[in-house]
Specification:
The structure holds 2 protein chains of 2 kinds. By secondary structure, chain A is an all-alpha fold. Chain A is 77% helix and 0% strand. Helices cover 73% and strands 0% of the residues of chain B. Chain B is mainly α. The chains are: A mainly alpha, B mainly alpha. The interface between A and B is large, with 46 and 42 residues.
C-alpha cells in the first residue's frame, strides 16, 4: 500500500504544479497584464509604474515562484476591485459554494444510487426503462435554463420559494436541485451498469444458492463491488459541481465562489480569478486522489495495477 | 485476413444494420437531428424576417397562443422587436455550427494525442497521460470563461477555446483503444513489413477506431452545444445581436416575470437538439456494443 500511496501522491503533486502553472499563465493570455491593469485610461508611464509595482518586470519563472510561494502560505495577493486580500474575499464565498455543492452531491447520490440499484434488478423492466428515459431527458435540459424555469414556476407563479439569494434555507432548495440533477443520469447509469455486471457473477449465484437474504446479497455482496467505479465518478462529479456552480450561482444570485469568479472576470480582477481556478483545481486533484486511495483500499488488486 | 474473417465481417455488418434499423433512438434522434440541420441550412429561406432587424414599435409581441399576437410574428418579438421565430431558426446555425466545428477540432487534437500515447507507450504515454490528467483537473467552465473573457468575447474565441479544452474524452478513449489494438496480429504484421509508425497509426489503427470515434463525437457534440449556450448565457460567448439560443435566454431573463415564453422557447429548442444528439449517440453506441459482443 505504501509505494502505491507515495506514487499516487507524487503524481497528484505534479498535477497540482501543472495546474497552478495554467492558472498563473492565464494572466498572460490576454497579452501584457500591466496594460490590462492600467485600463483604457492608462498612459505609458502608468503602465511602467504598474509593471514595476506588481513585479511584472521580473523574469516569468521568478514571478511564478513568487506567486505560488505566496499562495502556499494563503496569500493570493490583493483584489484589484475590492482592494482587499483575495484570501479574505474567497474565505467569505467558499463556504457558500461548498455548502451548495455538498448538498447537491448528497441529493444526487441519494436519488441516483437507489434508482440505479432498483433499475438493475430487472434490466429491461418497466422501472429500468422509466429510469433510463428520465436520464436521457434529464441530460438534454441545460441546467441554467432549468433553473430559470423553476424560478418562474415555484418562485413567481406559486410563490413557494424565494426567487434569489440565500438569506433563508429555502433559498438553497432550487439551486441544490438544479445543481444535483445534472449529475444524476451519469451516476445512475454507472450504478445500474455496475450492478448488472456484478449480479451476473458466479459468486452472487453461489450466495443465492446458499439461501442468503436477497437484500443482504444486494447490499453486502453486490454493491461493494459495483461501487468501485462509482467512487471515482462520484469524486469527479463532486468536483464538477463545485466548479459548475458558476452558472447556477449566477442564475440564482448566490454569492458563492462561482459568482465571484464570473464577476471578477467581467471586471478584469485577475488575481481573484487565478486564485479561484487554483483552489477549484486543487480541490479536484484532492478529490480524485482520495477516490483512487479509497478504491485501492476497497480493492487491493488496484494497489499493484498502477 | 482469412475468408472466414471476411465472412464474419459481412455478418457483423448485417447484424449492425439490423440493430440500427430497429433502434428507436437512432430513428427518433437521427430524424430530429436531420430536421434541425435542414432548418439550420435553409435558415435564410425559412425565416420570415431578418433575425437581427429591430422594430422598436413592435416590441415584446406575444406568441400565437396568447391574446394580442400578430400573425406576421407567429412566435412574437423580443425586447428589441426582432422576430423571435427567425431568431430561433438562425440560432440553430450557431448551435450546430459550434457543436460540429469544435468537436471536429477537439477530436483531431484528442485522437492525435491518444494515438501517440497508446502506440508508443513508455515515456510518451506518461507525458500525454499527465497532460490529460492536468486538463481534467482544471475547472472547465471557469477556464473557458476566463480564456474567452481575456481573448475578447466572441463566437470565434469561444470556438477556439473550447476546441483547445474539450479533447480530453477523445484522448482517453483513443489511447486505451490504441493500446488494445497495437499488439493485435494485423497491426504487428504491418509493422513487420517495415511500415513507418505514422503509417501504422493512420492506416492500421485509426480505421479500427471509427466506431469508437463516432460514439464519442456524438456525445461530445451535445456537450459542446450545452457549453456554448451556458457561456453565451453568461455573456462570454456569442455577442449581440447574434441569434444564439443561450444569449436569447440571457436576454429574455429580464422579462421573465411577465413574458416567460421568451426563455421557454430558446430553451426548448436547446433541449430538443441535445435530446436528438444524445438519442442518436446512445442508439449508435448500443447498436455497436451489441454487434461487437
Amino acid at each position: 500500500m505504501l509505494p502505491f500511496l507515495a506514487r499516487r501522491l507524487i503524481v497528484a503533486a505534479l498535477v497540482a504544479l501543472a495546474v497552478s502553472m495554467v492558472a498563473f499563465g492565464l494572466m498572460f493570455v490576454a497579452g501584457d497584464p500591466a496594460v490590462v491593469l492600467a485600463g483604457q485610461a492608462g498612459r505609458a508611464q502608468d503602465v511602467e509604474m504598474i509593471r514595476h509595482a506588481y513585479g511584472l518586470d521580473r523574469p516569468l519563472p521568478v514571478q511564478f515562484l513568487g506567486w505560488i510561494g505566496r499562495a502556499l502560505t494563503g496569500n493570493f495577493g490583493t483584489s484589484l476591485y475590492f482592494n482587499l486580500p483575495v484570501a479574505t474575499i474567497i474565505g467569505e464565498r467558499l463556504p457558500v459554494t461548498l455548502m451548495l455543492g455538498s448538498a447537491a452531491f448528497l441529493l444526487a447520490m441519494l436519488v441516483s444510487v437507489p434508482l440505479g440499484i432498483a433499475a438493475s434488478l430487472k434490466p429491461g423492466g418497466l422501472l429500468d426503462r422509466a429510469a433510463l428515459l428520465l436520464a436521457v431527458l434529464g441530460q438534454a435540459i441545460p441546467s441554467f435554463w432549468l433553473g430559470l424555469i423553476l424560478i418562474v414556476v415555484f418562485g413567481v407563479w406559486w410563490g413557494l420559494v424565494p426567487i434569489s439569494g440565500t438569506e433563508s434555507w429555502q433559498g438553497y432548495i432550487l439551486p441544490v436541485v438544479v445543481l444535483s440533477y445534472y449529475a444524476m443520469p451519469a451516476l445512475m447509469r454507472l450504478t445500474r451498469a455496475g450492478m448488472i455486471e456484478v449480479l451476473g457473477a458466479d459468486y452472487i449465484r453461489t450466495a443465492r444458492a446458499k439461501g442468503l437474504a436477497r437484500l443482504r446479497i444486494l447490499m453486502v455482496h453486490a454493491l461493494r463491488n459495483a461501487v468501485l467505479p462509482l467512487v471515482s465518478l462520484a469524486a469527479v462529479q463532486f468536483g464538477m459541481m463545485l466548479s459548475g456552480s458558476i452558472v447556477i450561482e449566477s442564475v440564482f444570485a448566490i454569492n458563492g465562489l462561482g459568482r465571484l469568479a464570473w464577476e471578477s472576470l467581467l471586471r478584469s480582477d485577475l488575481p481573484v480569478v487565478q486564485a479561484i481556478i487554483l483552489i477549484l483545481s486543487l480541490i479536484y486533484v484532492t478529490l480524485t486522489t482520495a477516490a483512487d486511495l479509497v478504491n485501492a483500499w476497497l480493492d487491493p488488486r488496484l494497489r499493484s495495477a498502477r | 485476413m482469412t475468408v472466414l474473417d471476411l465472412d464474419n465481417r459481412i455478418l457483423q455488418r448485417r447484424k449492425l444494420w439490423r440493430r440500427v434499423s430497429r433502434s428507436t433512438g437512432i430513428h427518433l434522434g437521427g430524424g430530429l437531428l436531420v430536421l434541425i440541420a435542414a432548418i439550420a441550412l435553409l435558415a435564410p429561406l425559412l425565416a420570415p424576417h431578418d433575425p437581427i432587424a429591430q422594430d422598436l414599435t413592435r416590441r415584446l409581441l406575444p406568441p400565437f397562443w396568447q391574446a394580442g399576437s400578430d400573425p406576421a410574428h407567429r412566435l412574437g418579438t423580443d425586447h428589441l422587436g426582432r422576430d423571435y421565430l427567425s431568431r430561433l431558426i438562425f440560432g440553430a446555425r450557431v448551435s450546430l455550427g459550434i457543436g460540429l466545428g469544435v468537436t471536429l477540432c477537439a477530436g483531431l487534437i484528442g485522437t492525435m494525442l491518444g494515438l501517440l500515447a497508446g502506440y508508443f507507450g513508455g515515456k510518451i504515454d506518461m507525458l500525454i497521460s499527465f497532460i490529460i490528467t492536468t486538463r481534467l483537473s482544471l475547472p472547465i467552465v471557469l477556464v473557458a470563461l476566463a480564456a474567452v473573457a481575456l481573448g475578447g468575447a466572441s463566437l470565434q474565441t469561444l470556438a477556439i477555446v473550447l476546441s483547445l479544452l474539450l479533447w480530453d474524452r477523445f484522448a482517453v478513449v483513443v489511447r486505451s483503444a490504441t493500446q488494445g489494438l497495437r499488439n493485435r496480429e494485423f497491426v504487428q504484421a504491418t509493422v513487420s513489413f517495415g511500415a513507418s509508425s505514422l503509417h501504422v497509426m493512420l492506416r492500421g489503427i485509426l480505421p479500427n477506431l471509427r466506431n469508437t470515434l463516432i460514439v464519442v463525437a456524438t456525445l461530445e457534440v451535445a456537450n459542446v452545444i450545452l457549453l456554448e449556450a451556458a457561456l453565451s448565457f453568461l455573456g462570454l460567448g456569442a455577442r449581440p445581436p447574434t441569434p444564439s439560443w443561450g444569449l436569447m435566454i440571457a436576454e429574455g431573463r429580464e422579462h421573465i416575470l411577465f413574458d416567460p415564453w421568451l426563455i421557454a422557447l430558446p430553451g426548448s429548442a436547446l433541449c430538443l437538439l441535445i435530446l436528438a444528439v444524445n438519442l442518436l449517440g446512445d442508439g449508435v453506441r448500443d447498436a455497436l456494443d451489441a454487434t461487437s459482443s
